[in-house]
Amino acid sequence: MRELTPWLALISRRPWRLVLGGVLILATLVSGIALLALSGWFITDTAIAGILLAAGTQVAVNLYVPGGGIRFFAVSRTVARYLERIYNHDTVLRLLMDIRVALFRKLASTNRVGQSKLSGAQWLSRLTSDVDALDTIYLRVIAPAGLAALITLLVTLLAWRLFSGTVALVLLATTTLSFVLATAIVYVRTRKPSYRQADRQEALRTAVVEHIEGFAELRAAGRTGRHGAWLLRQAHRMNSEQVEIDSRVGWHQAISQLLINLSAVFALWAGYALFESGAISGPVLVLLPIAILGLAEVYSMLPDAFGKLGATVSSAARLNRDVSPAGKADRIAVDEPSEEMALVASDIAVRHEGFAPVLTHFDLTLARGERIGILGRSGSGKSSLADTLAGLLPPSRGKLARQACVYLTQQTVLFDDTLRANLVLGNPEASDAQMWQVLELVELGERFAREQDQLDTWLGNTGSRLSGGEARRVALARVLLNPAPLVILDEPFTGLDADTRGRISKRLDRWLEGRSVLSLAHGSETLPATDRVIHLG
């Protein structure tokens, strides 16, 4: 359970929301049990009164007080349930926000080597199913278990007040056993299979995504049928284990409910003896067993939640392992260069884990205000070198010193958001005027001025509403908004024709005046203005 500790600490940062949400759940449950118990008392009282009247005995029945109580609890249960659903769903969304913000902060502090250990499908699983398993732990596990224990104590006190201490102790023992069976023992018996099930589900989800992504290759190799059959076997295996988990949960739920019902029977039997002795009235005799039966609703949600707790722990363990911040040994050491230099790379070697080095014995000095271009064919290691110089990929050998930099990666990345939201990532303090200025520089000012929402124009999924050249220019504009003294541009003019490239290059030369620039491209015609050019072999 220690895997949940950091996430529980994160959830507990909103204590008052959790307390108020718990109070609303408690109000709902208490109102439901009170409505059930008071209705049983009232029906019994009126039935006894009817029998006495039929026997010719004069009897008076107060219809207004219990009737008013029944209406009150019916309304309070409905209102409390409505408020609880709205408020706690809002709380869950806020907790989800907290978890995702913390998750992305951890990801931001993890170097690219750590991030590349997982495939895209696995990261998708982390950011969806694993996060979803954590954000409802309060509503599924913590609040129901705590409130079930509290309501059990309230019903026990009711038994002690209306019946006797002996009845209360027996009731407490029986309900406690039912509570333990529905929570702790369910978790113990389903922890390992549920933990494995979560891992298998993630593996199967990853395999299905990879099957879809690589369908063309599988079809070309004639292996779609075999791979599809393998996926079905994995799904069948997972479903078989899920049946075993559900069976264990079902048995524990059945035994827990049986104990609740036996408690009600015992209360009825003990109450009948008290009724015969004249210690309690008939309506009071019925009130406690019915209140105990109301506990069944409280306990019914516990076995399923605790049966899935092992999977939640598994999700937490994966997140803790895969998005932990880089340790000292993993951090990329980048020193500050001398006052005259913007970047100094000495005897740098670049390699990806498990592969031969891309570059070895690479030296580069970039003076402050200087502009250098690096040319090389595809596969020569330009982008890997750019990642290393920008601090995303640790050099396997050598030393690196540079100023703070901003980096335009070879791959264009835009978010499913507005133009403004994509631009402010480069400089959160940028004004609208600065955004329009940089859009004019990349020749997108007129394009978005025609849009009804202008800076608030929605770009679509990964910039799907833009052409490839427009998306690249938005990414370039975002980088140019950043005031960092060192600018690294990897293929800045991808997707642009020669005329557009030439016009933007001239404006870019003026915009970057006084800053150090390192540009990488396939050919000299796709480089912005440079002082000197380095060719990679």
Written overview of the protein:
This protein is α/β, with parallel strands linked by helices and 537 residues long. It has two domains: 321 residues, ABC transporter transmembrane region fold (Up-down Bundle), CATH 1.20.1560.10; 195 residues, Rossmann fold (3-Layer(aba) Sandwich). The protein has 19 helices and eight strands. The chain has a five-stranded parallel beta sheet, sandwiched between helices. The longest helix has 53 residues. About 1% of the residues have low confidence.
Keywords:
537 residues, alpha/beta, ABC transporter transmembrane region fold, Rossmann fold, five-stranded parallel beta sheet, 64% helix, 9% strand
CATH class of the largest domain: Mainly Alpha
Whole-angstrom Rg:
34 Å
CATH architecture of the largest domain: Up-down Bundle
Given as residue ranges, the uncertain stretches (5+ residues, pLDDT < 50) are 327-331
Number of strands: 8
The termini sit apart by: 53 Å
Major beta-sheet overview: 5 strands, parallel
Structural class: alpha/beta
Helix content: 55-70%
Mean pLDDT: 82
Q: How many individual domains?
A: 2
CATH superfamily membership of the largest domain: ABC transporter type 1, transmembrane domain
Assess the beta-strand content as a share of residues.
5-15%
Note the quaternary state here: single chain
CATH topology of the largest domain: ABC transporter transmembrane region fold
How do the strands line up in the largest sheet?
5-6-7-3-8
Shape summary: elongated
* Count of DSSP-assigned helices: 19
Q: H/E series, N to C?
A: HHHHHHHHHHHHHEEEHEEHHHHEHEE
